[in-house]
């Protein structure tokens, strides 16, 4: 009896003395297994169709700063879509800058030739690929009426513009009193595919759908019915949308809470499982996604703390088999990557470095025992201005908590590492508008180029300070899959 008691005390003592040992984060780069593959344009952005209704509002496609920030994200998909796409009517003959004059809650509005030209010239100048969401509410005899789309496509071909992807409608699963349901939209997609194939000048293109908006059973049911009605044959990429919460319920605390971050996981698993069943050879994308819906949360979605939701979403999605993530938005709302003054929000810088440093394949990293630390790993991008070579591995990690977390880099301890660590830009901490990279606030020095984004080069174990997040590249990792 005394013996058992003594052992128990010993074990308890061990735990008491070594609480930290059990929280220790160890990463073994050579033991990580490949989880998934992603493409070179995994991260894209959106601009809401609502901006066209406002005749592009405050967007100035000629602004050198706007162009510089956009070029910083190339290669990149731009999806122009959203609720207003189903009220947009292209009009080749009018130059009227005012949309419709009717007083309906959601009036139809006109996209003029000039507005379409501005968008196409912009994507071509900055090297982006355009995905455009067509109006599915234009109908005839219970089917989609493609007349207006044909007018737009003919004009597009005539001008030599290049569209990469097409969508049809937006979030029909949550649109109040939607005039079209899941089974009806399936033949509409087949019609779209036929139409696009009938215009050889448009090739190659891909079709994305159905851009369901709810998180949970409503979107799963909608997608299932769409697939059962044969819709899967007409799409190349299955798309769904995700926001963690409504903007009016957002708090700073929720934006760095592991439970909130984890809430994405079951949704990703459910959608990818469904797609594996119906369209096993096709890609699945988060076709529109951000921190909180309804424009993003004021003084939260545009602040440092929002970067937790963004970086974690990129990581979790890549590990679970999502092949594209389109960020709502590049410009517009509190969740824009750049704000109304064309100053980059923290998420912009995070995205630029993600694109430059992170590539395919994606590795599985066991979730560390310390729930405040989240880690992802991929092969390093060897085709960016950063100049990394084959074999390099990039880790990215987020410290949600207020204490420093040491990382034991195990088999990389004697190899050089390049650290790109982000921290809040000023004393407002998690709600700071700016962001520091390796201790220096990031800002454009001039309108024509991004500042250099340089690593701190070192060796040995790594300390991730409170509320920091960032990338660590091991140029000498020599993972043969990373070519
Ligand atoms: C375009 O606008 C003109 C002038 O307002 C109008 O007559 C025409 O019906 C419109 N076309 C479409 C496709 O809406
Ligand atoms: C918008 O256009 C659609 C399709 O032509 C039409 O059914 C609908 O009534 C229009 N909406 C308004 C508010 O005029
Ligand atoms: C969609 O509407 C059509 C026509 O009203 C109907 O036949 C079909 O059952 C509906 N589909 C679903 C999934 O409700
Ligand atoms: C995922 O599917 C499971 C099993 O059907 C269900 O219990 C769960 O609520 C779903 N979660 C989400 C977020 O859709
Ligand atoms: C995180 O969110 C969960 C669920 O909303 C809540 O139960 C938990 O208390 C939160 N954690 C912290 C540290 O506030
Ligand atoms: C490297 O990047 C350039 C510029 O984005 C692109 O044109 C090229 O296809 C890429 N090469 C490879 C091998 O991915
Ligand atoms: C650190 O965060 C924990 C909750 O995660 C909280 O209980 C504690 O007061 C915080 N400490 C400081 C110094 O802010
Ligand atoms: C790192 O170098 C030290 C000293 O040379 C050596 O003892 C250790 O085994 C090396 N660790 C690894 C993981 O290579």
Automatic annotation (TrEMBL):
**Which UniProt key words apply to this protein?**
Signal
* MF terms (GO), sorted A to Z: hydrolase activity, acting on glycosyl bonds
Q: Which residues cross the membrane?
A: none
| Signal peptide, first to last residue | 1-23
Establish whether keyword Chloroplast is in the entry: no
- UniProt GO cellular component terms: extracellular matrix; extracellular space; membrane
Q: Does the keyword Flavoprotein apply?
A: no
Family label: Belongs to the glycosyl hydrolase 79 family.
Name of this chain's protein = Heparanase
């Amino acid at each position: 009896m005394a013996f058992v008691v003594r052992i128990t005390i010993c074990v308890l003592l061990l735990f008491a003395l070594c609480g930290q040992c059990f929280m220790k984060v160890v990463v073994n780069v050579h033991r990580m297994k490949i989880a998934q593959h992603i493409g070179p344009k995994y991260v894209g952005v959106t601009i809401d169709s609502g901006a066209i209704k406002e005749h592009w509002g405050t967007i100035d496609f000629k602004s050198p700063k706007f162009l510089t920030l956009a070029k910083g994200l190339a290669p990149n998909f731009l999806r122009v879509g959203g609720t207003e796409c189903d009220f947009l009517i292209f009009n080749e003959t009018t130059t009227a800058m005012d949309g419709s004059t009717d007083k309906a809650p959601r009036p139809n509005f006109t996209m003029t030739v000039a507005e379409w030209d501005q968008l196409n010239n912009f994507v071509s100048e900055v090297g982006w690929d355009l995905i455009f969401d067509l109006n599915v509410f234009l109908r005839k005899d219970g089917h989609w009426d493609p007349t207006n789309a044909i007018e737009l496509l003919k004009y597009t071909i005539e001008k030599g513009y290049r569209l990469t992807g097409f969508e049809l409608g937006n979030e029909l699963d949550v649109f109040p009193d939607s005039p079209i349901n899941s089974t009806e939209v399936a033949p509409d997609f087949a019609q779209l595919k036929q139409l696009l194939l009938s215009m050889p000048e448009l090739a190659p293109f891909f079709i994305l759908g159905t851009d369901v908006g709810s998180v949970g059973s409503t979107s799963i049911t909608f997608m299932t019915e769409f697939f059962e009605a044969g819709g899967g044959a007409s799409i190349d990429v299955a798309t769904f949308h995700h926001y963690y919460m409504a903007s009016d319920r957002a708090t700073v605390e929720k934006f760095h809470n592991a439970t909130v971050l984890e809430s994405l996981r079951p949704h990703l698993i459910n959608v990818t499982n469904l797609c594996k069943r119906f369209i096993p050879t096709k890609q699945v994308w988060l076709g529109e996604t951000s921190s909180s819906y309804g424009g993003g949360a004021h003084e939260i979605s545009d602040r440092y703390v929002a970067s937790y939701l963004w970086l974690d979403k990129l990581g979790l999605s890549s590990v679970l088999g999502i092949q594209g993530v389109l960020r709502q938005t590049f410009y517009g709302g509190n969740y824009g990557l750049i704000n109304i003054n064309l100053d980059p929000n923290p998420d912009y810088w995070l995205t630029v470095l993600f694109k430059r440093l992170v590539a395919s394949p994606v590795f599985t990293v066991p979730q560390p025992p310390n729930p405040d630390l989240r880690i992802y790993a991929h092969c390093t991008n060897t085709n960016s201005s950063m100049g990394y070579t084959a074999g390099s591995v990039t880790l990215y990690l987020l410290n949600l908590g207020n204490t420093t977390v040491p990382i034991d880099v195990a088999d990389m301890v004697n190899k050089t590492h390049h650290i790109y660590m982000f921290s809040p830009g000023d004393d407002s901490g998690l709600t700071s508008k700016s962001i520091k990279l390796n201790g220096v606030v990031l800002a454009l020095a001039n309108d024509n180029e991004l500042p250099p984004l340089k690593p701190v080069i070192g060796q040995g174990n790594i300390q991730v300070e409170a509320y920091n997040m960032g990338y660590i590249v091991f140029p000498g990792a020599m993972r043969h899959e990373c070519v």
